[in-house]
């Protein structure tokens, strides 16, 4: 376990590095598609958000929210992903909405870095963003 420090530019650099970002998003999509049918269902998406901690960082939801309120929030998040409203999220929808969310996270962070505790095997996008920046700093000297 360690601590990473990220700010808006870290996140933005990650999103704008398109091949890298797409690879990460696709890998995430595949790992979330538990039943391997090529799309994400409502319950698969809910697991996704619980694991990615995006609700905390983007929507400002704290963990004391009552379950029915959480369900309502997850529903509205699902709907924002499901662009064509067919009840499932395909890879294209997932990628475009993740991009929007990560850019919104970047705007929210602005130039105020935040510290985040992460596990070594954490594969959240924020961790990956921090790793990417670290790799650039190390490789760019
Ligand atoms: Ca699925
Ligand atoms: Ca859809």
Which CATH top level class fits?
Mainly Alpha
CATH topology: Recoverin, domain 1
Give the low-confidence spans.
Answer: none
Small-molecule binders here are: calcium ion
Q: Overall mean pLDDT score?
A: 85
**Percent strand:** 5-15%
Rg to the nearest angstrom?
A: 15 Å
Summarize the structure.
This protein has 7 helices and 2 strands, in the order βααααααβα. It is mainly alpha-helical and 141 residues long. It has one domain: Orthogonal Bundle (Recoverin, domain 1), CATH 1.10.238.
Report on the architecture of this protein.
By secondary structure, this protein is mainly α. It has one domain: Recoverin, domain 1, CATH 1.10.238.10. 64% of the residues lie in helices and 7% in strands. The chain contains seven helices and two strands. A two-stranded antiparallel ribbon has the order 1-2. The longest helix has 19 residues, at 91-109. The mean pLDDT is 85. Residues 82-84, 86, 88-90, 93 line the site of one calcium ion. InterPro entries: EF-hand-dom_pair (IPR011992), EF_Hand_1_Ca_BS (IPR018247), EF_hand_dom (IPR002048). This is EF-hand domain-containing protein.
Layout of strands and helices, then pairs:
Elements lengths: L1 E5 L1 H9 L1 H15 L9 H11 L1 H6 L7 H15 L9 H19 L4 E5 L6 H15 L2
Antiparallel strand pairs: 1-2
Bound molecules: calcium ion (CA) (2 copies).
GO molecular function, one term: calcium ion binding
Keywords: Calcium
Protein name: EF-hand domain-containing protein
